[in-house]
Amino acid sequence: LRRRAFIQTIGAWLTGVAMFVLTASLASRMRFPLPEGTRPGSPSDDEVRRRLSSLFANPRSAALLGAHFLRTQGQRTGRDQLLADTGIDCTAPVAERGALRAAFAEARRTDFEAGRVVLVDGWVLARCEVACCALLAATSRSD
Amino acid sequence: VIIDFRDVAPDTEIASDVCILGAGAAGITLACSLSRAGRDVVLIESGGFQMDTPTQDLYAGTSIGQHYPYPGTFCRVRYFGGSTNWWNGLCGPLDPQDFEVRPWIPYSGWPIGRSDLDPYYVRAHEWAELGPFAYDTADWTTGERRFHALLPSKLTHCFWQFSPPTRFGQVYRDELAAAENVRVYLFANAVDIELESGARAVRRVHLRTLTGGRGTVRARRVVLALGGIENPRLLLSSDGVQGTGVGNGRDLVGRFFMEHPHARCAHVLPRDPEALVFPAFVGGRNADDPIVTDFYQDGVHVRAGLTSSPLAQRREGILNAAIGMRMEDRFTGFDALRSVTDDLRHRRWPDSFARNVWLMIREFGETARGVRSRLARRQYRPPRGITLFSMLEQAPNPDSRITLDRERDALGMRRVKLDWQLSPMEKRTLRRTLMLVGEEVGRLGLGRLRLFDWLQEGDDADWPSGILYGGCHHMGTTRMATDPSRGVVDAHCRVHGISNLYIAGSSVFPTVGFMNPTLTIVALALRLADHLSTD
Question: Which pTM value belongs to this model?
Answer without folding.
Answer: 0.86
